[in-house]
Specification:
The complex is a heterodimer. By secondary structure, chain A is an all-alpha fold. Helices cover 82% and strands 0% of the residues of chain A. In chain A, helix 2 runs antiparallel to helix 6 and helix 4 packs antiparallel against helix 7. The chains are: A mainly alpha, B mainly alpha. At the A-B interface, helix 1, helix 2, helix 4 and helix 7 of A face helix 1, helix 2, helix 3 and helix 4 of B.
């Protein structure tokens, strides 16, 4: 391990993700993409906020939402954001082993979050809160489901990156991918802060 | 870590690797802000408007902490990322105000 790390350290600059023009462009382009993602989630939040009182025959959020489950999901996602920033720090230290371990922990926590969300959706459907029940339920599943799909995409993406690091090692080509995936994961966490506040907490208050 | 660096050239010593410290502080901040928000709602029987204000302030504070530390926005060279993300957020908030305005007023 240590001889491998020394070999890498001799070749790689301090911030390998910004060592090449292509790497810098990838990082900058990814921020533009996140700007677009903000618009996407903004419109989904707008739809939800406009329709959240239109419950038709269904249950209101005050009866439906189970805050302990949501709190657990929140702490899992928060912790995964911390492990993902540890992976980026390991990237800057050129410590490939630590980086992969932190990425694996991040993926596992992401899967845990997804499992909780699937369980939660099953419970809601069981209680008659289906996608087509009301404007509230449709906008709820669209907003929260879109976020869940982003988590699922991130889990698959980071999983593939881990496999690629095993194959190609940490280079100026692979480093920007790891860095950008970390930014993506934090963005997903930031969106969740808005979701648990606007959807669950404000929904519980009524 | 130190063995890796002593082997490399002196240019390597110009930069310092950040420790995990400030990220753990950001994490603890996030946890505390989340707990306050959940506690404010779970306590119940408090003024609704007051509860709304608490949870929204907690969310805004947490987003600032996460953007600054975990998404490296306080680091230098992040002007374009800030313009991109806040430009997107501005359009998003406009959409929210528009939808809420149309439906509720």
């Amino acid at each position: 391990m240590s001889s491998h790390a020394e070999h890498l350290d001799g070749q790689l600059p301090h911030e390998p993700e910004k060592a090449t023009l292509e790497g810098r462009n990838k990082v900058l382009g990814f921020w533009l993409f996140l700007g677009g993602e903000s618009v996407l989630f903004g419109t989904l939040f707008a739809t939800f906020l406009a329709l959240r009182d239109q419950i038709a025959e269904g249950k209101p959020g005050t009866e439906l939402f189970q805050l302990p489950t949501v709190a657990l999901a929140t702490f899992i996602l928060l912790t995964s954001s911390l492990t993902s920033v540890f992976a980026t720090q390991a990237l800057h230290r050129h410590n490939v082993k630590a980086m992969i371990n932190w990425l694996i922990v991040t993926v596992i926590l992401g899967l845990g979050f997804l499992g909780l969300e699937i369980y939660e959706f099953f419970e809601y459907v069981h209680e008659g809160h289906k996608f087509t029940t009301s404007a509230f339920s449709s906008s709820f599943y669209t907003l929260v489901g879109f976020h869940g799909a982003h988590v699922a995409f991130g889990v698959v993406w980071i999983g593939i990156l881990i496999a690629q690091i095993f194959k190609k090692g940490l280079t100026v080509v692979t480093a920007p991918k790891i860095y950008v995936a970390g930014i993506y994961w934090h963005f997903i966490d930031v969106v969740w802060v808005f979701i648990f506040t606007v959807v669950y907490l404000m929904g519980k208050v009524g | 870590m130190s063995t890796q660096h002593s082997a490399s050239d002196s240019a390597k010593h110009r930069h310092r690797h950040e420790g995990p410290g400030k990220h753990i502080v950001a994490f603890i901040f996030s946890i505390v802000l989340t707990l306050i928000a959940f506690a404010a709602v779970m306590a119940g029987e408090v003024n609704k408007t007051f509860t709304y204000i608490i949870i929204i302030v907690m969310a805004v504070l947490q987003v600032i902490v996460q953007l600054a530390y975990w998404m490296h926005m306080k680091d230098r060279g992040h002007l374009m990322p800030i313009i991109f993300l806040f430009g997107g957020a501005l359009i998003g908030f406009t959409a929210i105000i528009m939808a809420v305005y149309w439906v509720w007023w």
